[in-house]
Amino acid sequence: MKNYEASPDLLRGRVILVTGASDGIGRVAATTFAAHGATVILQGRTLAKLEAVYDAIEAAGHPQPAIVTQELSTATVADFQQLADTIEREFGRLDGVLHNAGVLGDITPMEMYDPDTWDFVMRVNLRAPYVMTQALLPLLKQSPDASIVFTTSSVGRRGRAFWGAYAVSKAGIENLSQLLADELRNTSNIRVNCLNPGATRTRMRATAYPGEDPMTVPAPETIMPLYLYLMGPDSRGVSGESLDAQERPPTA
Ligand code: NDP
């Protein structure tokens, strides 16, 4: 899948929401989707950073994006409904959502994990994707070919010492993705999948592995083929899967 080659206009005409579009993997995914023809809604919490991504997309001559600022730890059901209403009013459609925003929380033994940090991580990494998806489903159901992509991690598939709420939130995301895929399989044109970026050179990775030379870790640009595959029509019929962006093709 690493070798998937997307056609230049793969996402032309589609409207795609990317959470955490201000930095790291989300920033690169948003600009990559725009470069393949999508109108991208840049969701994040830091306006200045989102504006920089907006400007880069516009300067490159890609479809004009939009910005939505939301702090995901405190966003309410009404806030997410307002997001859905705004998208419907401004664009009249939604064809894809990349739930990418995430926080690491503490890397510390369970015995010492701070409950407030736990709640914060769960709200950003698990509750927000759930409530946001709930609000956006009516719009996604109107799309002829919609894709929801949740972002997981290897520690969400198998718990690992010290990863605390982050690991538990990602395990929850895996399950949420599976049950939603199951519910929507025969009743809609929406596919739902989980994507594990694998070790990727971002601020989060540097925080989790402070002793690592960032240059030994792949840049976000190198993992985009699977993001494009899942967001575009070539993944039609693929749902309920948990895929790896850095998985080696069988022939490699
Ligand atoms: P970064 O820390 O580089 O970027 C995180 C993004 O999420 C930023 O845009 C950030 O906004 C946004 N964000 C964080 N907290 C909030 C919040 N409370 N409300 C709104 N937006 C928020 O992370 P990565 O790019 O590395 O990670 C992207 C996804 O990939 C995450 O879900 C992560 O768990 C997952 N992942 C990453 C791996 C890696 O090696 N990098 C490996 C496995 C999974 P702002 O810029 O304003 O802080």
Question: In summary, what is this structure?
Answer:
This protein is an alpha/beta fold and about 250 residues long.
Can you tell me about this structure?
The chain is an alpha/beta fold and 252 residues long. The chain has one domain: NAD(P)-binding Rossmann-like Domain (Rossmann fold, 3-Layer(aba) Sandwich), CATH 3.40.50. Helices cover 42% and strands 14% of the residues. The protein has eight helices and seven strands; from the N terminus they run E-H-E-H-E-H-E-H-E-H-H-E-H-H-E. It has a seven-stranded parallel sheet with strand order 3-2-1-4-5-6-7, with helices on both faces. It starts with 14 loop residues before the first strand and ends in an 8-residue tail after the last strand. NADPH dihydro-nicotinamide-adenine-dinucleotide phosphate (NDP) binds at residues 20, 22-26, 44-46, 49, 71-73, 100-103, 124, 151, 153, 196-197, 199-200, 202-205.
CATH topology: Rossmann fold
Kindly estimate the percentage of residues that lie in beta strands according to DSSP: 5-15%
**Could you give the order of strands across the largest sheet?**
3-2-1-4-5-6-7
Task: State the CATH architecture.
Answer: 3-Layer(aba) Sandwich
Q: Helical amount among residues, as a percent range? A: 40-55%
Tell me the layout of helices and strands.
Elements: E1 15-19, H1 24-35, E2 39-44, H2 47-59, E3 66-69, H3 77-91, E4 96-99, H4 115-142, E5 146-151, H5 154-157, H6 164-184, E6 190-196, H7 203-208, H8 224-231, E7 242-244
Parallel strand pairs: 1-2, 1-4, 2-3, 4-5, 5-6, 6-7
The structure holds NADPH dihydro-nicotinamide-adenine-dinucleotide phosphate.
